[in-house]
Amino acid sequence: MKKQEFIQIKGLDLKELNIKAKALKDEIASLTLDKNMKKLKDFKMVSKKKKELAQILTVIRQKELLGQLESQVKHKESNEEVSKVKKEKK
Fold this sequence. Notes:
Elements: H1 3-11, H2 14-36, H3 44-89
């Protein structure tokens, strides 16, 4: 995967990334089958696709963690605002 393609992948949302990951898993399975049946000429193709899948799964995990962190920060900020309002009422 080229650097420009990787930058484009980072711009996708989680739903699109999951679809892309599923497609790659299917492609890896078919390439592995072709490799075992000696139909595949480029044996490194399987490892290249596995690397692409790993990169996509990493981006998915990063986005999930970022979403969790953002929700925690928002929750903490809203709790702080509620406590400020309660202090002001006293």
